[in-house]
Every structure is written in structure tokens, then in C-alpha cells.
Amino acid sequence: MGKIKLWFLTSIALFVAAMALSSAVTDEHYLMLSIVLLFVTMLPFFSRFERRNIEAREIVILAVLAAIAAVSRVPFAPLPSVQPTSFVIIIAAIVFGAESGFIIGAIAAVVSNIFLGQGPWTPWQMFCWGMIGATAGWLRHTWLIKTKTGLLVFGFVWGFLFGWIMNVWFIIGLPDALSWKLIVIAYIQSFYFDLAHALSNVFFLAVFGSSWIAILHRFKRKYGLLES
Fold first, then answer.
1. Is residue 123 a contact partner of residue 19, using CB atoms and an 8 Å limit?
2. Nearby residues of 154 by Cβ (< 8 Å), 6 or more positions away
């Protein structure tokens, strides 16, 4: 288990380093970078199963959840920052763990952007949604996630954290204009979108959270998926 955690933390470190380097040096080849980073994030997943046979159904359930998270974002595109993607990632991570949550989040970002548009923002979205899944998985056995109020607070907070991290990409993308004024303006202008994301997380978690967790746990028990 220690080796798996080391792989996971190493992959995140590589993800952040490559993401920062790409943003600082060039905004080209972002799709290729996204694919490379996606491959890196999958390493802990396969490390998790290095001493046992990997069954196709275990990979299929993660692929299905990633697809649901990605596609669910498309119909809500006209409503900026309002989408159930974060909700799906959080619920999946609570049931299947941090590694699976990170992978589902990263895949959801790159797949949904096939429909909504790839760009230099894609690796940053992969990281943000991946970390939503990772943190939900890490905290799934704590009071924060086990209580409904705590879960809603978690979703609300990550709605803002997601936007704050994405603001970093915007700010470092304008090195010639970098100043405290730019930083303040960026975070003020993003407040509405961050709030919309946070409130949509709260809504989906409050209305659908319990039923989705029950359904996924039933699948996990029935098919013996991703025991942890």
C-alpha cells in the first residue's frame, strides 16, 4: 500500500510540474500534453493491482463513470460553471477511493473538452477535477464526507478551489501584465462562476448524493469491484 501511495503522489507531482512548465513555456501541443499527463495519472491505478489479476469489469466501471462525468458536462455548457461533473467525481471517489477518483476526474476533463474545446486550460482542468476526486477519496472515511452537512461543505469549498486554481493558469498566461492588480481582478471576476460551481455541487450532492452512493456500493459489492 505504501508503494501505491508513493506512485500516486509521484504522479501528481509530475502532473503539476509538467502543467506549470507547459503554461510557462508554450500553449501549443496541449492535447498531446493532456494525453501524456493522463497516462501518468493511470500509473497508480495499475500499481494498485500489480499483485492481482485485473478484471475487465473493474476498468469498465471507471470508464463508464468517467464517461458519465464528461458527458454530463455538455448539456450544461450554456450555464457557465453549472454542471454535475464534480458531483459524479466526488461520489465515485467516495465509493472507489482516491486513485480511482483522480483518474475519473482527469479523464472527464479531457473527454468533455473533445466536445467543448481543447486548449491550454485542459491540463489544469484535468488536475482540478482529478484532485477533487483524490481528496474525496482520501477523506471518505472521515466525518467530513460521512455526514451530509460535511459532504455539502466539501462540495461547496471545492467549487471555489477549482476556480481559484484555474485562475492561476489565466494569470501566469499573461506574464507581461502580471501584477497584484491583475490577480485581484481575476479573482473578483471569477467569483460568480466559482459560486455557481459551488452551489451546483451542493445541489447535486444534496439531491442525488445518497442514492448514487447506495447504487455504486451495490455494484461494488455485487461484482467485487476495486476492493480497498
1. yes
2. 90, 135, 136, 139, 144, 145
Measure the CA dihedral 11/123/104/159, to 10°. 110
Amino acid at 153: V
69 vs 101: CA distance, rounded Å: 11
Q: Which three cell numbers stand for residue 13?
A: 507531482
Grid cell at residue 11: 504522479
Instruction: Please name the residue that has the C-alpha cell 483518474.
Output: 103
Contact criterion met (CB below 8 Å) for 201 and 155: yes
One-letter amino acid of 114: I
pLDDT tens sequence across 102-113: 889 988 998 988
- Rounded to whole angstroms, what are the CA distances from 181 to 23, 168, 173, 178, 187? 21, 14, 15, 8, 10
Query: Could you tell me the pTM of the whole model?
Result: 0.80
Contact of 129 with 109, CB cutoff 8 Å: yes
Burial class (CB in 10 A: 0-12, 13-18, 19+), 99: buried
**Cβ atoms < 10 Å from Cβ of 175:** 9
